[in-house]
Amino acid sequence: MFHSSAMVNSHRKPMFNIHRGFYCLTAILPQICICSQFSVPSSYHFTEDPGAFPVATNGERFPWQELRLPSVVIPLHYDLFVHPNLTSLDFVASEKIEVLVSNATQFIILHSKDLEITNATLQSEEDSRYMKPGKELKVLSYPAHEQIALLVPEKLTPHLKYYVAMDFQAKLGDGFEGFYKSTYRTLGGETRILAVTDFEPTQARMAFPCFDEPLFKANFSIKIRRESRHIALSNMPKVKTIELEGGLLEDHFETTVKMSTYLVAYIVCDFHSLSGFTSSGVKVSIYASPDKRNQTHYALQASLKLLDFYEKYFDIYYPLSKLDLIAIPDFAPGAMENWGLITYRETSLLFDPKTSSASDKLWVTRVIAHELAHQWFGNLVTMEWWNDIWLKEGFAKYMELIAVNATYPELQFDDYFLNVCFEVITKDSLNSSRPISKPAETPTQIQEMFDEVSYNKGACILNMLKDFLGEEKFQKGIIQYLKKFSYRNAKNDDLWSSLSNSCLESDFTSGGVCHSDPKMTSNMLAFLGENAEVKEMMTTWTLQKGIPLLVVKQDGCSLRLQQERFLQGVFQEDPEWRALQERYLWHIPLTYSTSSSNVIHRHILKSKTDTLDLPEKTSWVKFNVDSNGYYIVHYEGHGWDQLITQLNQNHTLLRPKDRVGLIHDVFQLVGAGRLTLDKALDMTYYLQHETSSP
Fold first, then answer.
1. Which of 379, 396, 434, 550 is most enclosed, with most CB atoms within 10 A?
2. Active site residue: 213, 371, 400, 452, which one?
3. For the Aminopeptidase N-like N-terminal domain, which residue ranges apply (predicted)?
4. Residues 563 and 605 sit within 8 Å (Cβ to Cβ)
């Protein structure tokens, strides 16, 4: 999701005795292997303790008290039928969910919000095979957790499949969540209505009862009923259209690949499209309201180019045969990466060469690059839970940089990426910031994770890691991660493991030795071997909030280094300053250059203090080469004066991004009370000679 917030502009007693374990049902069902680290109780049944349960809307006990769903019933496939009425602004729908039971249970817990369920039945696999009618299920609702419980007449048998069928209805939403109505006005002044979905993170449950958590991946077969004046779109290509009595049409779509509920999408509208094909044969279509179809040409060109780039970069073909991008008149986020049907704000997709600016072009290109990256990061490989939302959002933000630089270098996004990091540093240096990865349980807490920390800081620490590992090793690690966890879920540690050991199968010789980095020097290999523990290093960046300050003091050929937490709004003389510094320690991959050499030196600072010896005397030292590191640098003693002197004598001896980084850091330090304003203004004096654009 390209989220607007990431743009520029009392404990209860556990109900069950839980044990954790891996289980795989291959022995019983050879075609189905579900291996996952779920919490599995010995059985699911009503406890005799009435105080252990919340109360359902009808006053009865609700048999589940946790916000997270139990993992005893696992969805495999949804058959979903939806009929929206764009006149009465409501919809009727039905679904049949194929589920697999791992442990005996007397109930099935799903998510449902603001849906009126009119009927619910259960069939065993045997009942379904012999066309026996389903058994009626009692439905209990617990709106506080947005959950329903389906009470079964007899305990469900472990390792068997069942079919849960439900009929339900609701009004089309008036907001921008779930299945809602959107409107646009034609050039002739007519207001027209469309029905559109937006499910991330927890709104699929507003459109159909479901297991609305990322870990519960399933396949979806979708049917949409509509009037002839409309079209229907969904994640997959349309298989057929059936004509019904009364002039209605019913579109049937191919079954989806295995995916999470938040990626399901369907739209009923009267839009027009422009289409083209990628080099691998994927049909890409850009949809917009009829009067704006002429503004879709650039989006099509960019999408084709970017999709081709990603297939090569990730070494994985886009797995669907089509990709639709549609401009929605009323849309909350900047865009949403629904697999095969990406939804956008009009301003994030449409481009008019006559009236749109160069910054509009960069914006549209960035958002398209972001959402297309999600087709791999997020869709193909999904985070296990929303606490690691940065695994997809930070990556998609970072891939904007890689993809736009490769496909549209003239847009100079590489220069702009510095702003991505500088903006989040301003917020991350406040004590009110948060870690990139942190617990999030309620829908509100989950929604709060879609912020600049997940997006921008996530992207910036990935860029720092890429600079540390080297581009080739980083890319190979990403490819390994995506291939290993395709159609599955992953967590932080899975990514670090892949990046620590980025040898692909094709890299191994017959002797089992990886030669994936033939161009790396022996010095670099030694550096990586001695220092590069990726997981150990990166957890210091994802599990604690804030940004480090590196304090540098040069004494002849010796550099004394010290790290502390960089804070705005709290000063060293304040009584709370020391407490806010405790327990903060980062493993910082330092880079630095000197006046005497163009060589980029590297060192990992793992302790509060350290000392480095320079090979020769130098008039200045500049840390954080090209501003690739996520840290602020303060030069004590004459350090700042030496750099200011160099800038005034010949600023080109310092790289353009280093000059930008110096100006950024010096004003950050003024705000934190570590430098005087006149020192910062001295730093800017050379700008009269500056010609570089970053």
1. 396
2. 371
3. 75-263
4. yes
Q: Among candidates 21, 75, 392, which has minimal Cα distance to 208? A: 75
* Pair 335, 434 in one domain: no
Decide which of 497, 523, 543 is a domain's last residue: 543
Q: Residue 28 domain-assigned?
A: no
- 3-state DSSP assignment of residue 524: helix
Residues 557 and 470 both lie in one domain: no
CA dihedral 361, 366, 367, 369 (to 10 degrees): 120
Which CATH number is 522's domain given?
Answer: 1.10.390.10
* Final residue in a domain of this structure, among 229, 250, 270: 270
Cα 4 from chain centre: 14
- Number of structural domains in the chain: 4
User: Can you give the C-alpha Rg of the chain in angstroms?
Assistant: 28
Q: In the block, which residue shows the tokens 């989220």?
A: 3
∠ at Cα 38 (34, 39), nearest 5°? 145
CA torsion sign for 19, 20, 24, 25 is: positive
What sections of 85-222 are H helices per DSSP? 125-129
If we measure between CA atoms, which residue out of 262, 57, 50 comes closest to residue 147?
57
**Full domain range(s) for residue 334:** 271-357
- 0.70 surpassed by pTM: yes
pLDDT at residue 694, rounded to an integer: 59
What is the per-residue pLDDT across 166-225, written as a single tens digit (0 to 9) for each? Answer: 999 999 999 999 999 999 999 999 999 999 999 999 999 999 999 999 999 999 999 999
Q: 596-655, pLDDT tens digit by residue? A: 888 999 999 999 999 999 988 899 999 999 999 999 999 999 999 999 999 999 999 999
Q: How many CB atoms lie within 10 A of CB 18?
A: 12
Tally of residues, the chain = 694
Based on the domain organization, do 158 and 252 belong to the same domain? Answer: yes
Mean pLDDT within 249-272 = 98
In this structure, the answer to whether residues 573 and 486 fall within a common structural domain is no
In a domain, 374, yes or no: no
Q: Which helix (H) or strand (E) holds 471?
A: helix 471-484
Is-contact 623 552, C-beta < 8 A? yes
Domain assignment present for 74: yes
Spatial separation of the C-alpha atoms in residues 482 and 495, rounded to whole Å = 9
For residues 309 and 61, give the distance between their C-alpha atoms in angstroms, rounded to a whole number.
54
pLDDT per position as a tens digit, 276-323: 999 999 999 999 999 999 999 999 999 999 999 999 999 999 999 999
**Which helix (H) or strand (E) element contains residue 2?**
none
Q: Please report, in range form, the residues annotated as the binding site for Zn(2+).
A: 370, 374, 393
Q: Are residues 399 and 487 in the same domain?
A: yes
551 with 497, same domain: the answer is no
Taking the CB of residue 373, how many other CB atoms lie within 10 A of it?
Answer: 25
* CA 630 distance to own-chain centroid: 20
Burial of 296 (0-12, 13-18, 19+ CB in 10 A): buried
654 Cβ partners below 8 Å, 6+ apart? 622, 643, 646, 647, 662
Integer angstrom CA distances of residue 135 from 110, 123, 124, 260: 18, 6, 9, 28
With a cut of 50, say whether residue 130 has pLDDT above it.
yes
Question: Pairing relation of β-strands 219-226 and 249-253?
Answer: antiparallel
Q: What is the Cα–Cα distance from 136 to 153, expressed in whole angstroms?
A: 8
What phi and psi values does residue 477 have, to the nearest 5 degrees?
-65, -40
* CATH number reported for the structural domain that contains residue 305 in this entry: 3.30.2010.30
Q: Is residue 5 part of a domain?
A: no
Please list the residues that pair with 508 across neighbouring strands: 514
| 530 among known catalytic residues | no
Contact between 3 and 334 (Cβ < 8 Å) = yes
CATH of the domain at 139: 2.60.40.1730
Is the domain of 306 the same as that of 266?
Answer: no
Based on the number of CB atoms within 10 Å of its own CB, is 304 exposed (0-12), middle (13-18) or buried (19 or more)? middle
